[in-house]
Write a structure and sequence with these properties.
By secondary structure, this protein is α+β, with helices and mostly antiparallel strands. The chain has helices at about 1-10, 15, 35-40, 40-50, 80-90, 100-110, and strands at about 50-60, 60-70, 120, 135-140, 145-150, 155, 160-165, 170, 180-185, 190-200, 205-210, 215-220, 225-240, 245-250, 260-270. It binds heme C.
């Protein structure tokens, strides 16, 4: 079990949290000495299954990035996750109890419908209050349409930025880089999603995920003929609830080259919820 844990840690976690568990500035926080690692095993399992995003305090230092969840890609099973968690709770000076596979399985079952990454605040840890005053909440137009522009995005990213002069989010080259919007929907229901974006032939074909609190949409970025050619493309639909929603866009799985230069995501109401997933 200990061997399995250290092997799987090297395979799935060390690229970000480093072989020494100390993390790296701008990349990932430390696991050695972390209150998140030694604290509740359920909470720890949630982080690995679904991922984590936004402001978090670890050993009194603040981070504001995105860790993709590992629980739903099929690459790793509950026993392996339990072995990793047991390993990190015993390594680098940590002294917490082992984590049973059943804890991971129960945590998975309890949040079976959830795809969205957790925030530190939702996990009730030593997070940081989301500064709601600072949040850009995107309002609907009178017809229910919602336009998520590059400028209004919160980037949870190592490289991704909003380039205000170009009015785009880019460069999208790091797999864990994500863009988040808070938005206000006039009505619950299904919304058609359109991307206003650019991508060249060489970089086209990367998979992405657009997810809201209650639905998930996967797709592949096609070429628009070049990074200087912006096109509006319909990619599917997501469900929104009435009122405040979150929408996250991120690469799905491995990223080859560049995902996309994104200018805008347009959401248009098309009917009752519960349609396309
Ligand atoms: C792609 C990089 C990446 C990978 C791979 C990754 N993490 Fe993370 N991890 C992060 C980032 C970034 C954060 C902070 C997220 C935030 O700012 O909200 C984080 C946060 C955490 C936290 C909470 C904070 C802390 O430091 O204690 C834990 C626990 C954690 N990761 C465990 C793991 C484990 C276990 C694995 C492997 C199964 C793993 N991570 C894989 C990037 C990664």
């Amino acid at each position: 079990m200990a061997k399995l844990g250290s092997t799987k840690y090297a395979q799935f976690c060390a690229s970000c949290h480093q072989p020494h568990g100390g993390g790296a500035p701008g990349l990932a926080p430390p696991l050695g000495g972390s209150e998140w690692v030694s604290g509740s095993p359920e909470r720890l399992a949630k982080i690995v299954l679904h991922g984590l995003m936004g402001p978090i305090k670890v050993r009194d230092k603040e981070w504001d990035l995105h860790m993709p969840g590992l629980g739903f890609g099929g690459a790793i099973d509950d026993q392996e996750i339990a072995a990793i968690l047991t390993f990190i709770r015993r390594a680098w000076g940590n002294h917490a109890d082992p984590v049973a596979t059943s804890v991971v399985s129960k945590t998975r079952a309890a949040a079976a419908d959830r795809k969205f990454p957790w925030t530190a605040q939702e996990l009730g840890g030593s997070g940081i209050d989301e500064k709601s005053a600072d949040l850009n909440i995107v309002k609907s137009k009178a017809d229910g349409t919602i336009i998520l522009t590059a400028k209004l995005a919160t980037v949870l990213a190592i490289k991704l930025r909003c380039h205000e002069d170009l009015d785009i989010l880019g460069p999208w080259v790091v797999q864990s880089d994500a863009a988040l919007w808070h938005l206000q929907a006039l009505a619950s229901g299904l919304y058609q999603v359109q991307l206003l974006h650019a991508c060249d032939d060489k970089n086209a074909g990367n998979e992405f995920v657009v997810e809201t609190d209650i639905s998930q949409l996967k797709g592949k970025i096609g070429s628009t003929g070049g990074f200087d050619q912006f096109k509006e493309v319909e990619i599917g639909a997501v469900d929104l609830k009435e009122g405040t929603n979150r929408l996250l866009m991120r690469p799905a799985g491995t990223l080859t080259g560049e995902l996309v230069d994104l200018r805008e995501i347009l959401l248009r109401p098309i009917g009752e919820a519960g349609g396309i997933r």
